[in-house]
What we know:
- It is a single chain.
- This protein is an alpha/beta fold and 552 residues long.
- It has 3 domains: 5-78, no CATH class; 89-399, no CATH class; 414-549, endopeptidase domain like (from Nostoc punctiforme) (endopeptidase fold (from Nostoc punctiforme), Alpha-Beta Complex), CATH 3.90.1720.
- Helix content is 37%, strand content 19%.
- It has 22 helices and 20 strands.
- Strand 16 and strand 17 (510-516) form a beta hairpin.
- Helix 8 packs parallel to helix 11 (248-258) and helix 10 (228-234) runs parallel beside helix 14 (323-336).
Amino acid sequence: MNNLKKPLLVMTLAVTLSLGASYKSFADNENINTNTNVKALLDNSSKIDTTKKIQVKLDDNNKVIKAEQEDKLIKEEAKVKAIKSSKTERLGFKNRFETAKKIKEKEFKNADTAVLVNSNEFSDSISATNITNGKSPILYTESAKLNNITKEALKGVKKVYITGGEKSVSKKVLEDLKSIGIEVIRISGKDRYEVNAKTAEKSHPVSNKKQDVIIASGEKFSDSISSTALAKKKNAPVLLVKKNEIPTSIKQYLNSFKSKNLLGNITIIGGENSISKEVENQLRKLSNVDRIAGSDRYQTSIKVAKKVSAKPEKVIVASGENFLDSLAASPVAQKHNAPIVLVKKMDVPRIEDYKTNDQKSNSVESFFSQNKSTIMHTMVFGGKNSIDDFVLNGIKDLLTGKKLQAKPKVDALVNVPKKETPKPNKQDSVLDKIVNLAYKQLGKPYVWGTHGPRSFDCSGLTSYLYKQAAGISISPSSRAQTSYGFKVSKSNLKKGDLLFFATGGGGISHVGIYVGNNKLIHASTPSTGVIISDFNSGYYQRTFVTARRLLG
C-alpha cells in the first residue's frame, strides 16, 4: 500500500467505527449486535480508485477475518442449511393400485392423459415410460377388469394409452374406460419388443433431427428403470433388446433413422450379462456406442444417476427387486429430471459390499454421502414390503453425515421362523431344511428355464429345494410336479407343500412352496425374482388350483 492510501485507510476505519450513523454497516443490515460483530468499509487497496469501498468482517476481538476463513464459514453455513432443509419422504401405500393413485394425485393432478398397464406383468408395461415423458402417470389394472382404485384415479383423465395386447389388458377393461368417456389408444404387438418399438415410434418418430437412443435389457427390468431420467435428459426412447439379439422390430426402428443419416449416439445401460458384446458390436455398425454399467444393478443405477446430474437436488429411490413400484416412480423422475437410485429391500448397498475402488465409489452409500450437501429432496417409492424403514432411515443418516447402522441379522430380515423344539420326527426336520433353504433364495433373479443356484424359474426353484435339502429329484416342470405326492386341501396346508396356480388364464402355469403362516416363497416374475407372498391375497386365492404334499 502506498503512502497516500495508508492515511486514507486509517481515516475511513476510524470514521466508520465512531460515526456509524453516517451509513448503515453490514452488521446493521443483518440485525446483528454491533458490540460483538463490527463491520466497516475500507478502501479497496488493490484498485486505483480510492473512492470505491468494500466491506470486511471482523471477529469479536475486532480482528479482520481473512478471506479464506470467511469462505470456509460460508461453506459450513451452506452445508448446515442444506442438511436442515433436506427432505426424505416415502410414497408407498397398502397396494400398488393405491400407490399409483397417490402418485397421480401428488405429481400429475391436472394430467389429462395416463398410461394403463397390467398390474402383474412387466413385459409390456416396461415400455410405458416412452409414452409418459414426465407428463402422464402410470396406473395399474388387473387383466380382466378395471380396478376400482384406478377408476377413481382416472377422474379428469381424457385419454389413456394401454401398452400390450388383450392378454395383458383385456377388451373388457377397454370397454370400461370408454363407458366413462375416456379415449383409449392401445399399443400392442406380437411380443414385448414390438410393443416397445411402437411406443418409441409414438414418442420419438423420425423427424429432421438426429435421434439419440437408450438400449436396455428386455429380460430384466432394473436397467430400463434406471435409464428413465437419462432418456428424458437426452430426449431419447428406451429400446429393449435380448441379451444376444437385437429383435427385428427394434432393428427396423433404428434403421428408420440410420437410412436418413439421423441416428445419433447409442447408450447401452447394463453390463455384458444383460446385453452381450455381440449385440454391442452390432450396434456399433449403426452409430457411436457408449455403455454405462456397474458390477450389479445398484451400481449401474448410480453410474446412470451421475450422468443425469453431477450435483443432484432431487433423487428418486426405488426398489431394485420390485418392478411395479419402480415403474410408477419413473414418470416422476422424468418430470423432475431426477436420477433413480435402486436399493435392496432390507439394506442400502454399502461400500463394504464391493472390492475395487471404482465399485466402492459407485455404491449407493457413497452416492448419498458424496451428495449430502446438494440433495434437497429424496422420494422413496414403495411400501415397507418393497423398501424397509431400515433403508429409508439409512438414507436419512447418510444425508446428515452419519454412518449407516450395522446390517440386521439375516433371520431378522426375512423373518425366518424359529425351529420348534423338540422336533416331532425326522420328516419335519427335513421340511425345516427345505423351508430354511427357500428363505435363503429370496432376492435371487427369475430366469426362465433355470434351476439354480444363481437364478430360477418357478418350478426350477421347487425342484432345487427338494433336491438340495431332501435329496428328492422332481421334474423342473410345474405341470409335471402335480403328479408327485398326494393332494391336500387349502385348509390342511403345512410347510413344504407345493402350491399350484393358473396365472395365465389356462392350465397350471406357476408353482411355489408353502412356508407356513399363510406365506409362500416362489420365483415369481423377471421383475421380482424370488419373493415371499401372502397366500391369502386375492390374486393367489383366485388363481390357486391345487396343493401337493411330497413329505409327511
